[in-house]
Amino acid sequence: MNTLFQRLMQGAARLTRKGDLQAATAAIQQALRRGAPADVEVDARADVEVEAREVFEATEGPTSDSFRRGKYTGAGGTRDYMLYVPPQAGSRPLPLIVMLHGCTQGAADFAAGTEMNRLARAHGFFVLYPEQSSHANPQRCWNWFKHTHQARGRGEPELLAGMTREAMARHSIDASRVYVAGLSAGGAMAAIMGDAYPDLFAAVGVHSGLATGIAKDLPSALGAMQRGPVAASAATSGVPTIVFHGDADATVHPGNGEHVIAASVHKEATVEQHAGVSAGGRRYTRQVHRAPDGRVGAEHWIVHGAAHAWSGGSAQGTYTDPRGPDASAEMMRFFFGAIKAPSSSFVQ
After folding, report:
1. What secondary structure letter does DSSP report for 341?
2. Phi and psi for 127 in degrees, rounded to 5?
């Protein structure tokens, strides 16, 4: 094998074991630019995917972390996933955040773009990244717009809930601190998961997504995405929800964010409005919806001038806006402040 190529790949492996995903990705990209040997197959479309399959094999233990692939099969089918296990695993039950990628993305790409693993390493929580199959959807979108995938106990919601429960069974995870978030189609599916499984997920994060029940088929989905929903969602699970949406989003109409919020807040909630500017220069408006008892039921972040991209994300992943406020950090903050009462079992 080419010596330089081998040295760069070995360096990427060491960086991965240390948990420095950005540096590992950069090392792999440098190796690919230098030219891989003829006997090494390279997928030029997804450097991050190559990284995830080939390199992430750190040893679990009290001072190390891991990020590796797995496969889950349940009543709703079979899907691959990636699971980040923090160095604090085993010391005590830790939170879990389930992250649902958008169309054309994969688990490793979404992890790189959101940098949620970096936060998980620093703050001590697991991150599960389910991965949609191109056989289930040619664009690898979660099928949020089909009526067969919008309810408890069926389709992709049942599959994702089962995958989450399996992760909880295999690792020491605090059942009262399990959360779900997603981007675009993943954001829409995250909203569905919160509505369908409020006993499983303590809070929901929807980035550039849509409310449950806004569409029942592809034509109605495209209409809601292009023009905004024509009616508010009937879903009222009451699960705390944080929404991020760019007001220059030309893929999913920003009005959808308002409908996600409307479906999750108390009808008598008061709204506190705050304006700010991110470190990258993006202006934003943060609306805090507070129930009559004082609890925060929802937050709506409107990122001014932002398009269809994860706010504050890394350029190492697709569909990110590094200039925006850090959606990953704000979702983590919101989630960890929304802890439900522990439950010894889940409603089936």
Report:
1. P
2. -135, 125
